[in-house]
Amino acid sequence: MAQQYTVQARDTLFTIAQHYYNDGNQWNKIAQANNNLNPNSLQPGQVLLIP
User: Own/partner pairs for 33-41, CB < 8 Å, 24+ apart?
Assistant: First the structure.
């Protein structure tokens, strides 16, 4: 079941993946679930789908 996560200041897809999957290298799963999100375009307050 997918979850939602609200981006905080200083977050990266790597750190978010580390939190949810215990493996930052899984960041691409999050990017793909969010319309191939560019990792450099994260903005605080943005809501991401976490597969």
Answer: 33/2, 37/13, 39/12, 39/13, 39/14
Report the alpha-carbon distance of residue 2 to residue 9 in Å, rounded: 22
Domains of the chain, residue spans: 3-50
Considering the domain 3-50, what is its CATH architecture? Answer: Roll (3.10)
| Predicted TM-score (pTM) above 0.90 | yes
CA distance 31 to 40: 11
Listed in sequence order, the residues at least 6 apart from 45 whose beta carbon sits closer than 8 Å to its beta carbon are 6, 7
Is the pLDDT score of 12 beyond 90? yes
